[in-house]
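Worked Example 4.2. Consider the chain below.
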Amino acid sequence: MSKVTFRERARYWFDNTMSKGTASLIGWLAVVSLTLIVIVAALTLWLAPDEPDGVAGPGHVLWIALMHALTPSKVASDKGSTAYMAVMFAGSLGGLFIVSMLVGLLSNGLKQKVDRLRRGRSRIVESGHTVILGWSDQVFTIVAELVKAHASEKGSVIAVLAERDKLAMEEDIREAVGDLGRTRLVCRTGRPTEPRDLALMNLASARSVVVLSPERKDPDAHVIKILLALAKRDGMHPPVVAGLTSSRNIAAARLAGGQDVHLVDSDDTASRLIVQSSRQSGMSVVCMDLLNFDGGEIYLRTPKKLVGVTYGEALHAYQTASVIGLRRPAGVVLNPPTDTVINADDQVIVIAHDDSHIRLAAGKPSLDEAAIVEAAAPPTEPERTLLLNWNGRAEQIVRYLDGYVAPGSVLEVAADHPKAGTGLAGLRNLTVNVKDCDTTDRYALESLGVGLFQHVIVLSDDRFDPHHSDTRTLMTLLQLRDMQSALGEHYSIVSEMHDENNRALAEVTEADDIVISDTVIGLLLAQLAENRHLADVFGYLFDSRGSEIYPRPAGSYVTTGTRVTFSTVVEAARRRGETAIGYRSAHARNVPPHYGIVLNPDKSEPIVLHQRDSVIVLAER
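Applying the procedure from the previous section yields the following structure tokens:
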């Protein structure tokens, strides 16, 4: 190998200094400027020693050379000999290049600084703030719900860290959410997997952290890497809630984040909700009402006056709140047996519109004994369900459905998806048939004999992007709606969609339930970010074991067409071993935003329930 020459060493040193940034470039420019000034001054003293008129020595000549270098236009006013004018012209010409380069360097340096400030690279100094790591459409739902939750708080802050432009994030959120009220939004551009970028969020002083599953290939791997970065950082560790798309990655995420991280299985939650909604019309709306911060919210209370009281007696304990279960040291139980005694270490789970409304009622409830109906629960019979389309969570949906239906039930899968009907071995109650079908084609749907089924589930086809998939789902719903009208058929329809904005369009189809999976997961993440102790409550609600939410005929509880108080409805449900939490009006079932559902009404409020209305209860199957 040849020896490194002095020229190569000098070139290498010069390249290294040039790569140090704007300051280094300006330093070299200053050296060049000084060299030019000294050369011009020396040539002036040599070629024109007595010029210009009134010169007072070498220092004065240096000053004149400096002014010509910094102000090239000054040469226009010079007078003197040819030698003097030539030297000054050369100095001014060199100064022109130097000044141009200086302006360019300063402009580029300032632009880089402004871009850095624009990306938001300063460390957050807030405390008690909620941090959102990552970006997906769920961020809009989460921010909107946190704004509602903090509406009465002054100085609340939501901080978002994602690999997007800071201003673009702020603009998108404000456009989607609207007025943020008293809540301040702070966005930072960075990678949530990098410890240096995480340090910008002041996590040690944060109230909670929400990790979003990004809209990219293999999103769970990205979430797990963020959990690893959070676990490895020093200092205080705030509560973390993370969303995963696949149940198969729960164990790895738990290992990465530790036992203190609460994981939300998006596919599992959405699958359970779709199945429950297919069997209980309005289930998704009830869950969304419980999950958002607009209406009824779930609270945990430890009232000393209820210690020693049975659960059945506690159902009438609050005037403007509904008791739904107990949080015991052994775990959460919703709608326990009515003779369950409330202990001192139990917490009562209630639904209320605000925590200020959770006050014990004065006196006994007003009951209309004559209006209470005693009706036996209908027997379970085999059912026929039609599943249109197929996606990654369809297998999970079928298996959950198998746990609900009676033996001998039939599931017909109609889809042109290459994986339709695969992976369904080991079903106990369902017999599955698979047919190739374009679910947007009217004639193909008519050939299925849809009127023979009690329930129809329309899934989102994952072969298409979310927006196009929603469009195809809308086409299918419109076809089904027209077939119902033309043929006089009756069957429940539940559909899955991605975009909440498409719900308004889907209302034209009058589907019984529309499950917006991304919105539901966003609402759940927002709830757990505010109170992670509710995780067990929502986990119980979405589980097929134990009590679940059921909208049941009002005529099974009270005499329809009669004015009664909601306390009477609660008592009628209590005698059946159930917990009434609201009702659904049939004439408003297609009226947004609650679609006829009223949760946690005042127990003294008189209501009239009609034959097609429903009472919403927590009950065993």
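The chain has a mean pLDDT of 84. DSSP finds 19 helices and 22 strands in the chain. Compare this with Example 4.1 before moving on.
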